Structures are given as C-alpha cells and as structure tokens.
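Dear U.,

For the methods section draft, I wanted the exact inputs and outputs in one place so we can describe them consistently. I've listed the two proteins in the order they'll appear in the manuscript figures. Please don't edit the token lines directly; just add comments below if something needs changing.

First protein:
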Amino acid sequence: MRVAVTGATGFVGRHLCRRIVECGGRVRALVRPQSDRRVLDGCPVDFAVADLVTGSGIAGAVSDADVVMHLAAAVRAGSDAGFRLANAVATGVLAGMLATLGTPPRLVVCSSLAAAGPVLGQGRARCEEDPPCPVSWYGASKLAGEREARRFADQVPTVIVRPPIVYGSGDVAFVPRLAATARSRVAVRPGPPGGVYSVLYVDDLCDGLIAAGLQGRTAGPDEPHSGVYHLCDGVEYTLADLVRTAGAVLGCGRPMVLPVPSAVVRAAGVMSEAVGRLRGGVPVFNRDKAREAVAGSWTASADRAYRDFGFRARVGLEDGLREAFKEMLHG
C-alpha cells in the first residue's frame, strides 16, 4: 500500500508514518519547506514539498498513492479566518487536486470531535448521525473542511474520521498540561458539573485511520452523515478520572478537583491570549479553547467504526499515560 501523508511531521503524523511502515506500507510525506524532517529520522519515508493552500506540488506527490491521509491542520490560530484557511480551504484544495487524477486515491480526512460539538443535554455520547454544532472557531473550521472534502466525494472516495482528545508520546499539548496539573495536586474543573470526556491513545488512532482508509464506507456528496467515523477508547472519563490516573502514574497522589465558573474560564482565556499576543504567539489555552472547555461533555460512540471495520482501542488510559509520561518518569 502506497500512502501519502499530510501533516506527517506533526504529533499524530509521525506516529502514523511509522505505523504504516510497520504494516508493510510505503509512505510519502507531504511537507512544507520549513518542516522539521528530523522527527522522522529512522523511518524510511519519501519527502515531497507541497503547498496545501496554493496546490503547488500536490499532484506529483500523490499521483501514485493508493490512500491519502490528510492530517495537516491548525490547532491554534488567532482568528476564525486563520483556522479556515488551514483547515477548510487547504482540505478543499487537496480534495480538488485528487479529483483531477485519472484514478483518485482514497482520501482519509482526520477531522475532530470538535467538528461535531459537545454533548448538549442528550445524556449520551455523540453519534455520527447527530447534527453537528461546533462551539469554537477550530471546530467550525474542521466541519467546514469535512464539507469541502465532501464536495468532491462523487469523484474521490472519501472517509472522515473524528478523534476526541488524542494523547501519547510526543504530544506537546494535552500530556504536558495533564502532568503539570497532576503534579500541582489541584485541578480546575471548568464549566458545568458532570462533564465527561472521550480520549484515545495515539497508536489506536493510527490503527483506526489505517482501517478506515482500507475498509471504511465512503462519504456521499449529499449525505451529511455518511462516511464519518467517531473513534475513542470506549470509556467516558471525568476530569477527576484523568488527573487522578495521571497522578497515580506519576506518583503524585490524588489531586483535588475544584470547580470554576464558566465566566472565569472565559475571562482566563481572553487574558491568556492577550499575554500570548504580547509574546508573539497564540497560547495553548485561549478564547477558543475556553469556549470548548465550558461547553459541557465531549464524548463519542465508536460503534459505527466497530461495525464497519472492527475498530477497538487496545490501549487503556493508565497504560497510555505511562507510555506518554515515560520521559518524565525516567528523566
């Protein structure tokens, strides 16, 4: 199997490239000129420079691919327009270029549960048939990216995967924050009480993406729920579950969990972003993340993925965090 991967040097991308090679596949990594290729040292991949906004270099990079895994995305941006350029416009350009090929490869779009939105008063995990209602710029841009890909679905066989919180070694967002919270022995629970979350270990996501690319049902251009798969490890976690498991793995004991009103969380997001801008960037916690934090529960059902291609997560939270924290534990 010949696989082209966008976002190959990112957190999930580097794990996916290695997993494809382990499975006997060949990888071509689509990168920007400034991408740090060293993160894939030791992994036998070919590199191709491509621009997902202008379309430059895409056709040559994917011309012999059986599957294109589209992981490139912006998870932080200073505006709605910034998210849409990276997450929606770029996806449309990629899908449109694939549609011009004589025999287009299968396209797997790695979207996000943020595109579906939180659970809002339903009392159950989100299913693919539920109407999407993103609450953040990021989520809205990922949903727009899905719709851009779907525009070409009558020409390009397309599968859309929506992972929840993804964690593992090399993660620079969720894992460091969770470790810092566990070590501080105090966790802040934002928004309304009773919130629960779905998570997924990065290697399980990679296996799910590969299975979706090989066996997933493809999307229809006029069928908004077709070809979409939610993935998760099948367990719903409270914030207390997450930080206490992290504390146990790190040997920090059981942290306290303190509720914080939604208004305070939103204000903290504004302040954090303002400070970040003064320092020349967008911080991990900002206005957009604050909107997601106070929105309620973020859980998904992976039943459709199990029915269609037998997806089951293999790594539980404690084992996954132990692997993700390995450098901290032995550093």
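Second protein (the one for the lower panel):
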Amino acid sequence: MDLNKIPQIKYTDSQNFFLLAGPCAIEGEEMAMRIAEHMVTLTNTLQIPYVFKGSFKKANRSRLDSFTGIGDEKALKILRKVSETFEVPTVTDIHTEQDAAMAAEYVDVLQIPAFLARQTDLVVAAAETGKTVNIKKGQFMSPESMKHAVNKVTETGNEQAIITDRGTMFGYQDMIVDFRGVPTMKQFAPVVLDVTHSLQQPNQSSGVTGGRPALIGTLARAGIAAGVDGLFIETHFDCANAKSDGANMLDLALMKKLLTDLVALKAVVNQF
C-alpha cells in the first residue's frame, strides 16, 4: 500500500505514524466540521498524515432503538464537505456491496467493519472501486488469517489495503490486543491499531457498549512502541452525549496532549 495514493493526504515524508480519527458516527454537519477543524489544526502542526473518520451509518448495533444515522446521502455529503473544506481525505464504514459503490463517490477510504472482515463479496466490492480499503481484523480472527482478507483486495488488482487491529474477544465483555500480531500482519499490509474500539466492553446487559477510555493513552503508546504504522482513534467534544460509542471515545480536548506525546515517542522508536 502506498500512503501517497490516498488523495489529499499530507506529511507522508514526516516519519510519523498516520492517523484515522474522528467521531464514531456523523451526527450532523456542525459537529463533524467542528471535530475536523480541531483535528486538522493539530495534525498540521504535528505533521501527522491524517484521514478524517466518520461512519455515514451504523449497522452493527446492540439494540433496535440504537442510533444508526441521519440518512445515508446526507451523511456522505457532510463527509465530502469535510474533505473539500479542510483538504483532507476521509474514511467511512460500509456494510453491503451496494454501500461500496455509493460511498466511493464521496470518500477516499472504504472501511470493512470487523464483524464483516470475512465477507468476500463485500471486501471485493470495496476493492473494485479502486479506493484504499481498510479491513478491520475480526475480533474472532487470528493475525495470520488476515493474509487472506488482504489477498481478496490485491487479487482484484487493488494494492491499496490496510489492516486495522481492534482487539480480540477475551471472554464475553472485554478485548485484548495481542501485539505479537503486529509484525505478522505487517507482512501483508500496513497495520493500524484501533485504540478506542480495542478498549470497548461489549455485550452489556443494558444493550449499550461500555469502554475504558482512561487507557487510550496507554494502548496508543504501546502500539507505537510495537511498530504499528498508524493509529485509529474515535473522538468527540461531548462523549457523554455522543450518539454512538461515547463510552470508549477520547474527549477531543485531550487529543493535543496525546498526539504530542505520541509524536515524541515515534521519534524515539524511529531510531530503532
């Protein structure tokens, strides 16, 4: 995968990790623009290659009454506006083959959710758009098995594949990150650590996923030290009232300190 082939991405020669970050879901234009402006300012200052993340819809929900989106086209148009306004690439999740072609008209990176990482038709549909495809490792999959997911992309003639580790199920309500998988998966594609989803606590009796956001910094630092190529961090300026995954997102106000620390750590890691 060539990072420079992602449209509008900057600072690819900075020797920094790259970053996919933004809200879990697009809740409206004002919130998306506010988060994007903050993140673009930070990443420009720190020279971090940056992709704005926001799901145009949420299909994997615990309860029927959970928030799923504001409307597909409306959310996708907001993602396009973010890209055009701040001159940054964007990434969003897709859940069906039809989503692939639709979302590809608006965003630069198509993301395969972890639960769907083995869905051949979905992965191939994403690859056939020619967009960069970010495949989240299923919570139930081994690092070695991600070779086959990547091959589904590359065998269509699309070399733009990324693997994102978002933790492995540990019992019913917790995740662990096995950092032994980082060098394994780097043999197949660049590896991103999804810091926030790796700290989820799913399957709560309330039907609302929990999380441990106090450990975001710990996990992010560990990922950089282990040699990941990029980080994935969901963030919001009002996590308590976010419509999706608020329990495991990073407060936007804490992002500056975290990224500053991580850039300093990456500079040390680069010496090795």
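Candidate sentences for the figure legend, describing the second protein: The CA atoms of residues 69 and 229 lie 30 Å apart. The mean pLDDT is 93.

Thanks,
Y.
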